[in-house]
Amino acid sequence: MKSLLLRPVISLTLILVFLGMPLSVFAQSPERETELRSLIDGKAKSIADLEAEIEKYQGELKQIGTQKQSLQNEIKSLDITRKKLVADISVTENKISKTSYELEALSIDIKDKETRMDAGREAVAQGLRIIDSYDQASFTERFLAADDFSTVWNDVVVIQDIQEGLHAHIASLGEIKTGLEDRQTESLKIKTQLTQLRNQLANQKKVVEYNTQQKNKLLATTKNNEANYQKLLKEKTALKNAFEDELLSFESELRLITDPSKIPEAHAGALNWPLETIFVTQYFGNTAFAKANPQAYNGQGHNGIDFRASIGTPIKSAKSGEVTGTGDTDAVCAGASYGKWVLIKHDNGLSTLYAHLSVIGVSAGDSVSTGSVIGYSGNTGYSTGPHLHFTVYATQGVQIADRRSRVCGGTYRMPIADLRGYLNPLSYLPPISQ
After folding, report:
1. Is the pLDDT of residue 130 over 80?
2. Fewer CB within 10 A of the end CB, N or C, for the chain?
């Protein structure tokens, strides 16, 4: 009996020391964590510097947009846009590096917490085993078997200390477990963000290619001559007018809306803004601009709203929904209509169209969340300058169709709508502040 009781006494002393150590002493890799924090801060500064550079380019593009449309101004705009796009790519690359460092730091923290959990569990298990072994003999048996009565009393005190240490360790383990679960959730979010950034980088590189193609095509078509450029503008406007007349004639006969009473009621905030920065350049309906430019609007007004958006600006879904379809009218009727477009159906009876894109980032059937990037702004289709055209439809009044065009001599694919299905976007967007 005496020898059996002596062995736990040694373990008692060791486990008491172990339980007295805070679990934080098991943290690892403090040097790497410090290094990672420095790297993260460095990338954050680089991002801030690049964003300031991009803001400068945006100001230059805005100024050019107020000037007369000319070959020289368009080339200058394309050149500045390229600089901005290169800076955009650098921002994304720095964000990828920063996010990777954050993920590594998070992985170290998760590993540390797992190590502390394992150490804590072992300490608790050892303490429970010792208490259990002491519980096998009664206090009377231990008292009678001891050579020194004070040893028995000391063991009782030590057992009480171990019990208190166990309570503290178990509480600490609970906190570590909660922290570990939070960090694991955060890690999943960062991994998702990293994937999104890599996709964004790939699309931004496509936008640069698009911008280069635009400039090369412009120079080749006009032979770098202003007179040729102005002639090109007139031809483009004439083609657009003919195409719009043809489309209007067809849409005027559509009867897609079967129940007008179910057209969604106007509700500010039913949709979100499709851009981070909002500046409306053309409103919906028979606006003053539309009336002053009947050659462009055929007296029918504007079927959406236009936002200022330099080439490569991320375009966001105005609400969660499903991508009904995407397309590019330039493939058949270059410069006459929407160019590259995306149509999204939402669950509130509305559908939204995003047109004149440079790059499309989604496919038909994709589910998108509110604010997710679906593409990048451009100057495709009939556009007198880079911008986003945004149309809101009553979903029951719009469909995607393949139509044979006499004007363009081919079959184009694009959204077509019952004229009653066009809705004023500002009736569903948040209040405008400009």
Report:
1. no
2. C
Helix, strand, or coil here: 392?
A: strand
Give 281-323 pLDDT, tens digit per residue. Answer: 988 876 554 455 443 344 457 789 999 999 999 999 999 999 9
d(CA 176, CA 113): 6
Which of 187, 136, 177 minimizes the C-alpha distance to 159? 136
414: domain CATH number is 2.70.70.10
What sections of 293-394 are H helices per DSSP? 294-297
Mean pLDDT (the chain, rounded): 85
- Beta carbons within 8 Å of 68's beta carbon, 6+ residues apart: none
The pair of three-digit structure tokens given for residue 194, joined into one six-digit string: 């990293």
- Residue 186 sits in which domain range? 2-206
Residues 89 and 123 both lie in one domain: yes
Query: Is the dihedral angle over the CA atoms 286, 291, 292, 297 positive or is it negative?
Result: positive
Nearest by Cα to 341 from 331, 350, 349: 331
What pLDDT does residue 23 have? 56
Whether 414 and 400 have beta carbons less than 8 Å apart is answered as yes
**376: burial class by Cβ within 10 Å (0-12, 13-18, 19+)?**
buried
Spatial neighbors of 302 by CB under 8 A, at least 6 apart, are 282, 283, 284, 285, 286, 287, 289, 290
Same domain, yes or no, for 118 and 238?
no
Residue 120 covered by a domain: yes
- Give the model's pLDDT for residue 1: 38
Alpha helices in 136-148 (DSSP H): 139-145
CB neighbourhood size of 201 (10 A): 17
User: What's at 178, amino acid-wise?
Assistant: T
The DSSP bridge pattern shows strands 387-394 and 398-405 to be: unpaired
Instruction: Judge contact between 316 and 374, C-beta under 8 A.
Output: yes
Q: For residue range 210-252, list pLDDT tens digits in order.
A: 999 999 999 999 999 999 999 999 999 899 889 988 888 888 8
Provide the pLDDT for residue 153: 56
Structure tokens at 241: 């007018």
How many structural domains compose the chain? 2
